[in-house]
Amino acid sequence: xxxxxxxxxxxxxxxxxxxxxxxxxxxxxxxxxxxxxxxxxxxxxxxxxxxxxxxxxxxxxxxxxxxxxxxxxxxxxxxxxxxxxxxxxxxxxxxxxxxxxxxxxxxxxxxxxxxxxxxxxxxxxxxxxxxxxxxxxxxxxxxxxxxxxxxxxxxxxxxxxxxxxxxxxxxxxxxxxxxxxxxxxxxxxxxxxxxxxxxxxxxxxxxxxxxxxxxxxxxxxxxxxxxxxxxxxxxxxxxxxxxxxxxxxxxxxxxxxxxxxxxxxxxxxxxxxxxxxxxxxxxxxxxxxxxxxxxxxxxxxxxxxxxxxxxxxxxxxxxxxxxxxxxxxxxxxxxxxxxxxxxxxxxxxxxxxxxxxxxx
Length: 360
Description:
Elements: E1 7-8, H1 9-24, H2 40-64, H3 70-78, H4 80-111, H5 118-135, H6 137-162, H7 180-191, H8 195-202, E2 206-207, H9 210-236, H10 246-252, E3 255-256, E4 259-260, H11 263-289, H12 295-316, H13 320-326, H14 329-359
Parallel strand pairs: 1-2
Antiparallel strand pairs: 3-4
Helix pairs in contact: 1-6, 1-9, 1-11, 2-7, 2-9, 2-14, 3-4, 4-11, 4-12, 4-14, 5-6, 5-11, 5-12, 6-11, 7-14, 8-14, 9-10, 10-11, 11-12
């Protein structure tokens, strides 16, 4: 059997960081229930803890089957039902790719020139991601390292430029209306989190200190979101609650060394991280179908998946109501719960029972 190309744990978690951060920064007060945005820091802390619990069954399965992904284990042990699980993960990545691209196109249409060619932007970004997915996970991981460095430097420049604008009187008392905002924020963040599903599918490609890498990644994304939310609240005040994309507004009001409006830098960083997000999703689809079709057919399927994401994203952004109907938080949360909680736990329990029967 041909062993998959391996990348280091930290390369993999750089990919996951960028994949998760690009969609997390598009949250707004409307999505979070119009409560105190600062309380959503606790939402990210709750997700931090939950992710540690959810990844434990996957670590156990990876230790038992180091060369197999979760769908591959399901196919081996459950036959036809296992192939159904692979299909579910493939559809999940397709949906989340479409959602991510739709959110980015909405960002462009609402903050920049509405006449900008969203067709060309969507095709170019998805085409780059498709190329990376076809070339393999090593190509994606190398790009992720470069983009992560640029993202870290770019966001550090934006935060530094915004520091003089921090106004602590904008910070509202926590829990004034109860903990509803924090729980709502947790469900919003969880519904957009693909990290567990990506680990379930891509774990055989990862080598090295996976547990330490996951802890650093999980803590890093939580810290970044906490800092971003603090700057949104302390710099924008009540104005943040009127913005569709407050993170973009934050970048637009920043200036450094005489350079005003760093929103162009922010958009560029979003574009680069979106490429990694889509590439990870497409490569996840590739892994899900790898045991069913030949490599050449797999490339055709990836191209078709990329085309579907582009077409649906363009159709959805034609009317904001479509996104509200198709991408309701409840729908995404149910799908994420299925792929990140239920299916891993079911397969984990099945393997535990199988192990007990052998021992008996």
